[in-house]
Amino acid sequence: MMGGHALEPSLPKTLKGASVVNVQKTSADDLLVELSSGIEVAMLEPDFEEIKKCDGRRVIVTGPAPDGSEYDFFTRVFCPKFGLDEDSVCGSAHCALVPYWSKRLNRQTFTAFMASPRTGVLYVELGEKSQRVRIRGEAVTVMLGTLLV
């Protein structure tokens, strides 16, 4: 595995034989798994019971977008340990994904495609000096309220 180590010997079973290129743990205790292609990410049918057994909080699966695509990489985020098999559009996962893809592609700005059944597009950027990730995209307001602390 390129740059990764054998953190998860069960990942091929968990991800039903997907072509794993790299595995690493994020600072947030997630597993970041790169597959050989974004199409493979989109077509993935993971075993959620096996994912619950994986080390880490959730499993972030990513892969390069197909040539000619308007996107740079595809992603899906699986978190059955939290009672949610798949996060439809996960901004927080991109705090690990953007630095990862920045090193892989030697760039700071990306268009990311969340390949969940609902799908979503995120416009993300890594601040060169600050090393902070900026995330933009469309959102839907589902609740308004006031929190008193």
From TrEMBL:
It comes from the Eukaryota. The keyword Disulfide bond does not apply. GO terms for molecular function: isomerase activity. SUPFAM superfamilies: Diaminopimelate epimerase-like. Gene3D superfamilies: Diaminopimelate Epimerase, Chain A, domain 1. InterPro entries: Phenazine_PhzF-like. GO terms for cellular component: cytoplasm. Pfam families: PhzC-PhzF (PF02567). Keywords: Isomerase. Belongs to the PhzF family. This is Phenazine biosynthesis-like domain-containing protein. It comes from Rhynchospora pubera.
